[in-house]
Model the fold of this input.
Amino acid sequence: MKKILFVFLIFFLLAFFVYPKFINTALAATFKFDKTSVNIGVNETFQLEVSVDSAEEEIRSVDAYISYDGSLLEVISVSDGDFFPTIIHDTSTSGQVYIAAMVDDPATSKKGLGKIATITFKGKTNATTTITFNCQSSKIIKADTNATNIIDCSAFNTSTVTIGTGGAGQTSPTPTPTPSITSLPKSGIFDNVQKALKPGIILIILGGALRLLLL
Done:
């Protein structure tokens, strides 16, 4: 009987502290471009779709900051996607497109892969350049009480654009440096409860296990 109780306590520790961490790192939301490579002529245009993939998580809003080289590309227009009902975009800053998308009702959420916007660019001169997501500023907000940012920047893709004959070397935009992401941000109330209770629970369980073994 003592051995059975001891095994049960070990399984409880694993279930409470290890399994939730596995779940949190398994799910990660990200942004994607529909094209990873584009070839156009000088003064020609192309369209680039921007999508969010929530990776089975329920989300309420996103903020996507997209960086490009304003000396080589020009934004002609931004059209709304169909994943979120409300979409806002700003192209007033050369070299950056900002897209915000959200649900209308806080009681609702979205899940899965969906298009949030389509950007139309024009090539200005012969060159090769890359369009990227700015990780530090972008957010994907989970539908929880803490509005947790669950973005996984390591899953971003990029879009390489060759204009005309290309260039001697590839140019990339220079946004705020992107931090390396090794794990998802801590997610909400459950993690906070774990932090607060972990030391006390471990001591109680270990003490109980020792008593059972000594009886």
